[in-house]
Amino acid sequence: MQAGDEQITAQRRPEMPEDHRTDSPEQQRSDAPEGLTSPQVDEAGTTAGAMLLDSLELEALVLNLDASLNVHARHQFFTWTQGLLQSLIKHELLICALRNGEPMSFYVDAFSTFATEPSLFSEVFRQDTSLVPHLIKAWEDNHYRPVLVDTGSGSFAGSPLARELNRVGASSLVAHGTYDSTGKLASFFVFACQPGTIGPRQAHLVELVVPFLHGSWLRTQINRPVEHSSSKQGGVGLLTMREQEILKWIYLGKSNIEIGAILEISPLTVKNHVQKILRKLNVQNRTQAVGKGLALRILST
C-alpha cells in the first residue's frame, strides 16, 4: 500500500455473498473512491488487525450500551458521549448528522469538551462539499461499514471541515452511519480523534456502538411537552455570575490556565471556583458539570 493510499481506510465485511461479487478485487479497488483502501482479509475471513475484545473492553461496552438507554435529552447525550463513552472510544469531537429530507441535507450537532465552540463544526459539516460527501459515499460503497480517514494530508486537507479538524488536532476520523429500509442514509456519526489513535479495533467498537448512538440521539430530537417555567428557572441563582462565566468556558473546552488568562485571574482561583461549581451542582467532574449546566439551562447551546 502506497503512502498516498492511506487517506481513507475501510472496514470491509470479511465475506460477501457470491451474487455481490461481480468484480475482481483489482476491479473493486480501481472503482473505489480516491484514497479508499481496505484492510487485508485472511483465509479465515477475518479482517487483519481485528481482535476480540478483552474483558475490560467488554465491560466498558456493556456499561455504555446500558447508559445509552437512559439518554432522553441533549444534556444526557452530552454527559454520556463526553464521559463514559470516552473510556471506550477516545475522541476529541463527535459530530452527529441526521438526514433531513433531501439526500445531502442534515440536521447536525457536535459534542466536545476539548474543541472550542463545537457548534462551529456543526455549521462547517453542513457546508462542506468535499470531505463530507466523500465520506458518505465511501461508507455506502463499503457496504455500510466504518471508514477511517486522515484529514491531515492529501486532497481532503483543504476542505473546510478538514481545516477546522486539523486546527484542533483531531485529524484522524472514524465515520459510520445507519440506513433506512430503502438503503438510504438515515444518520451519520464522525468521531474525530488525535492522530495515531484509531485503527481497526476502534472502527469495530464504533460499529458496535453506533446503533445505540443513533437511538439515543434520536430520542433527544423528539418534541416533548413544554416544561413549566418553574423547571426552566431551576438553575437560576444556583451559581454566581463568576461561576457561570467559568462554567461557560469549561463548556467551550478551556483549561484552568486558559480560563485564568481570559478572566485575568490566577489558575488557582479558577480551580477554587471549579470546585465550588462541582459541589453546588452535586457532580464529580467537569463533564458532568457541563451536562448539569445544560440540563438546568445555566448554559445554552
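Next protein, fold it too.
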Amino acid sequence: MRERGAQDPTRRGAEGQATKGGREPAAVRFRATVEYDGTDFAGFQIQRSGTRTVQGELETALARLGDGARHVVEGAGRTDAGVHALGQVIAFTFTGRQTAPQLETAINGLLPPDVAVRDVRRAVSGFNPRRAARYREYRYTIWNGPHSPLRERYALGVRVPLDAAAMERAGQAFAGRHDFSAVGTVVGDRSPVRTVHLVRVRRQGSLVTIDVRANAFLRGMVRRIVAVLLDVGRGMVNEQQVREALAARTPARNGASAPARGLCLRRVVLGRRDGMDELNDGDD
C-alpha cells in the first residue's frame, strides 16, 4: 500500500511496499522520533536479559505488532542510564500493511507510559540515524534554588549560587574541533577528536541550562563537560584552567561527571555533516 505524500524525500527508495492481490507485504524501512523519561531505564541500547532499556521496549512493541520476530531498532544516540530524550531519532524495518500514521498509533498503544514515538515515516533503504546525524544537541538542566522534588526529577539541584556568566565564558573552551580525551571515554581505537558547534549557558531565575551541540560525542562527554562548568560556577576553577585541562588530555577534575537526571537529548538534525569518521560513542 503506497502512502500519500510521495513527494517527501524520506519516503523514496523504501525497501518495499505492501503488494496487491493478497500477497505478503514487503519489508519497509521507517524512521521516527522518540521521547522518553530515562529515569527508570538502564539506557537506550539493549543490554543483558532482564535489563530495562528504551530499545528493548520499542522492539517488544514491534514484535507484538508483527509475527513475534525481533525488529532491530537503531538510534541516533545511545543515551546512558537515567538520561532523557525529547528528540531521539530511530529507524527500523517492518513488514505490515499499516500506513505510517497507523503504525505510529499502534506502536504507542503498546509502549509503556515513559516512552512515545511520533513523526513515523518511511525512510530510504538502509537508513541509519547514527550515521545520518549531522549533529546532536543536549541540554543539561540545573535547579539553582531551594530544594524542589518535582523540578529535581529532571534537573540537578545545586544550592550554592552559580556564576552562569563565568560558566558561559569557560564553556567556549570546548567549542571547536578538539581532542576531548579530558572529558570523555574513547571506545576502542577510535579517535578522541570531535567537533563541538555550540556550548551555551543561560540563567532564567533559579533555572540554569547548559546546551551542547556537536557532530558526535565521546562516551560520557556531555556530563563531564557539565561537571567542569559546575566547578567554574562555584568559583573553584577559571576559564584558563579549563583550557589547560582540555589540552592536557587527561581526565579533567578527576573524571567527575554530573548526574544523569539533568541531561536530555533535545534533538538530532539529519543531513550531510563534517567529520564523517567521528561517530557517536554514546553517551552522554
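About the second fold: The chain is about 20% helix and 25% strand.
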